[in-house]
Design brief:
This protein has 491 residues and is of the alpha/beta class. It folds into 2 domains: 46-113, Alpha-Beta Plaits; 151-383 and 396-489, Peptidase S8/S53 domain (Rossmann fold), CATH 3.40.50.200. Helices cover 30% and strands 19% of the residues. The chain has 14 helices and 20 strands. Helix 8 (258-270) runs parallel beside helix 9, helix 12 (427-449) packs across helix 13 (455-465) and helix 13 packs across helix 14 (482-489). The longest helix is centred in the C-terminal third of the chain and has 23 residues, at 427-449. 53% of the residues are buried.
Length: 491
């Protein structure tokens, strides 16, 4: 990689990509590219059994253990769902035979659980390559038009256009900054517990759902990036700098299982998380019988979360060119599966507040999924107006936290940042700003009314506070506004 620095009134950084970068397949979008680079967490899919609601799973688990003592079994009693990873293929056949013969009349659906991608924000900006694979990336590391109040402002604060938009330049902080009685469960890759901007707001170590991984430290970067948009409080500030954070780890270094995501949703709701953030997603076929069990399990988990009064926020998904999620048949065809019918999940399903990404011009980004089943827009950033010419401007991206123990990118280094801060973009960074706003609404509502709002009331306040934009039925009523939603509580 050749690096050329030019010092003018602005710091201009030109990164010329090495020839090896041109070897990436331009048809691979960010999510699947991450899977190529890191590989799946597990080689064999789990089997998902969806039983009739109310069925006690204890005897079923006992029979499976008798058949295959080495099987990994995850019962989710609240939604009558059981996932099994047999110790071998032959043992898997034996387990299937026992379950079907003894409990077949109680089973609603059964199927395999393929992996769900890690989302649309990659820990290394170089991995998120657009389809035209430009040879030059130009990034302006300072803006001459901005008034800088201090050295700290010049280094970090001026990059936070997305946070400024949602908070109306910090005005929402004067109404409500959040407290640790209101918690956001982040279903993701864990958190950096040592990050100076996050550590004081992490109120629990949470839980890992990955077989063989017990800690919830973030070794991937995605979860820490999400957390920064929610509750960073240091060199940068998130939308809700006083809110409590809890990690529910489903990614480690690569992909995750849908069954783990589903179990994490149920566990977070059972743990009384006020908000659950899901910056991740997967597409499922409505015509493939193997995928019906996972689809229904997602729906049951979301129904349980709503019953527990946990407000679930999910990203709409990021692609090279965003898809309309409204029509299952058209979505499948757009993805290259004519004759099929597909859904994006969990974002796009009922009982989820689904978030599309908008840019600095308050318009839908080219990469964001959208549709009538998308609830709202939120700033996720993009590469700027000259991206189609191969010219990227980080002023249009978003700055967020990143694990301090992972390698710092050249862009972050040239901008003068300490380790632990990176520029990124995607619906994965749009969703947490909505989660943060929902958490603030809950905190303020409780202060005003003496009780926490119901899920439907949270949704109503977020919708009422949305900044009007030309959404054209692509992302609900407009763009999330913490300030206006908080103002609506007192009306």
């Amino acid at each position: 990689m050749n690096v050329q620095l030019k010092l003018t009134r602005n710091l201009l950084v030109v990164l010329t990509l090495a020839a090896g970068m041109n070897g990436f397949d331009s048809s691979v979008h960010a999510s699947s590219l991450s899977a190529q680079l890191t590989g799946p967490e597990e080689n064999e899919a789990k089997t998902v059994y969806l039983f009739q609601e109310g069925v006690n799973l204890k005897s079923i688990v006992a029979d499976i253990q008798k058949t295959d003592s080495g099987a990994v079994i995850d019962p989710i009693e609240e939604i009558a769902t059981l996932t099994v990873k047999a110790s071998s293929i032959s043992q898997g056949v034996a387990v299937e035979k026992v379950v079907q013969s003894k409990y077949g009349t109680l089973i609603e659906e059964t199927g395999k659980d393929p992996t769900v991608t890690s989302g649309d924000v990659q820990p290394d900006g170089m991995r998120f390559m657009p389809p035209n694979k430009p040879k030059a990336v130009i990034q302006s590391a300072a803006s001459p038009s901005q008034e800088l109040n201090s050295e700290e402002d010049s280094l970090y604060k001026k990059w936070l256009w997305d946070i400024d938009l949602v908070t109306q330049n910090g005005a929402s902080y004067d109404i409500e900054g959040g407290n640790h009685d209101v918690k956001v469960g982040i279903v993701d890759s864990g958190l950096d517990f040592n990050h100076p901007d996050l550590k004081d707001n992490i109120v629990s170590t949470g839980r890992s759902f990955i077989d063989g991984v017990t800690d919830t430290q973030d070794y991937m970067g995605h979860g820490t990036m999400v957390a920064g948009s929610i509750a960073a409080n240091g060199n940068i500030q998130g939308v809700a700098p006083g809110i409590g954070l809890v990690p529910y780890k489903v990614f480690h270094t690569g992909n995750a299982d849908s069954s783990d995501v589903i179990e994490a949703i149920v566990t977070a709701a059972r743990d009384d998380m006020d908000v659950i953030n899901l910056s991740l997603g997967v597409y499922k076929s409505l015509k493939n019988k193997e995928e019906k069990a996972v689809h229904k399990a997602y729906e049951r988990a979301l129904k349980f979360a709503e019953r527990e009064n946990s407000f679930v926020v999910a990203s709409a998904g990021t692609e090279n060119i965003g898809f309309d999620l409204s029509n299952a048949k058209e979505l499948a065809e757009a993805r290259g599966y004519p004759g099929d019918a597909q859904l994006h999940m969990p974002g796009g399903l009922n009982r989820v507040y689904t978030v599309a990404a908008t840019n600095k011009d308050n318009a839908l980004t080219s990469y964001s999924n959208y549709g009538k089943n998308v609830s709202i827009g939120s700033p996720g950033g993009d590469f700027g107006p000259l991206a189609d010419q191969g010219i990227y401007d980080v002023r249009y991206m978003t700055l967020t936290t990143y694990p301090t123990h992972l390698v710092q990118s050249p862009t972050s280094t040239y901008a003068g940042f300490e380790k632990g801060y990176e520029f990124m973009m995607g619906t994965s960074l749009a969703a947490p700003k909505v989660s943060a706003t929902a958490a603030l609404v809950i905190a303020e509502y409780e202060e005003v009314h003496g009780k926490k709002p119901k899920v439907r009331e949270i949704k109503k306040l977020l919708d009422e506070g949305a900044m009007k934009a030309d959404s054209k039925k692509k992302f609900g009523p407009g763009i999330i506004s913490a300030y206006d939603s908080l103002q609506a509580i007192g009306k």
